[in-house]
Amino acid sequence: MTERVVRTAAYILLFLWACFTLFPLYWLLTTALSPREAVLAMPPSLVPGEITMVNFRRLFRQAPILTWIRNSAVTSVAITAWHVLFDTAAGYAFAKRQFPGRNFLFWLLIASMMIPEQVTLVPVFMMLDRFGLIDKLQAVILPGMAATFGVFLMRQYIQTLPSELEEAARIDGCSELGIFTRIILPLCKPALGVLAIFTFVANWNQFMWPLIVLNSRHRFTLQVGLQTLQSEFLTDYGLLMAGASISALPTIVLFLFFQRYFISGLTLGGIKG
């Protein structure tokens, strides 16, 4: 009896916590689907009295939302692909290959994680300006093609793979590139899934760097473009919430389909190497 009571109480607490954490999403959708009068009503109503798509129609009419979505998709997918390639290759080198200064270089790389991102904004911007890449999507993609966290994550995971598989492949005459592509990559699918999902979500929601390097309205990513919908003297909350709903949709779908990778990502970084 006591165990049943404890379990019921735990379910009730989890349900209340889920309601608490999902309330911002509920309020986002409620505001996006409410007319302007209902959005500005005081006190606000938790239950919408009228459901309308007028905010979404105004959003697609007033802003190049499809262009912004395309720009965000291009930059996020490109950065994710390069992350998977570079971070996995570097992680493999640090985990399985022997070369002078390996440990020193790895810890130097880890130490770079303590450098605030804001410190590198000016030098990276000046470098891209010299290459003539400002106000181009390449300016968003190039600085994000690899990351220290991704190298660390893949190194920690690859270290857990048995070295006997590589030795057997070498005996069979497999090249180093073949070992990497035919042995290491297939075995790294869980870690690759975690890295790809985390990278895509982070870059889909990226705001500061695209805001700095993109100037033309038709080149904005979705997050930067939504910011331009807010004027100096007026905030159209219904319009902004409609845009935020569209922005949140890919990450929600991604989480629903690949939530097991999110859960495994909580433990991958703690693997001992």
Describe what you observe in this structure.
The protein has 273 residues and is an all-alpha fold. Helix content is 70%, strand content 0%. The chain has 15 helices and no strands. It is globular, with a radius of gyration of 23 Å.
Order of helices and strands: HHHHHHHHHHHHHHH
- The general outline is globular
Gap between N and C termini:
45 Å
CATH topology (fold) name of the largest domain: MetI-like fold
Work out the number of β strands.
0
CATH class of the largest domain: Mainly Alpha
What's the number of helices?
Answer: 15
If classified by CATH, what would the architecture of the largest domain be? Orthogonal Bundle
- Bin the strand percentage: under 5%
The parts where pLDDT drops under 50 for at least 5 residues are 269-273
Question: Which structural class matches the secondary elements?
Answer: mainly alpha
- Let me know the largest β-sheet: none
The CATH homologous superfamily of the largest domain: MetI-like
Number of domains: 2
Mean pLDDT: 83
Spatial extent as radius of gyration: 23 Å
Name the helicity range. Answer: 55-70%
What is the topology?
Layout: H1 2-32, H2 36-39, H3 54-62, H4 65-96, H5 102-111, H6 121-130, H7 137-141, H8 148-158, H9 164-171, H10 176-187, H11 189-204, H12 208-213, H13 222-227, H14 237-257, H15 259-268
Helix pairs in contact: 1-14, 3-14, 4-8, 4-11, 9-10, 11-15
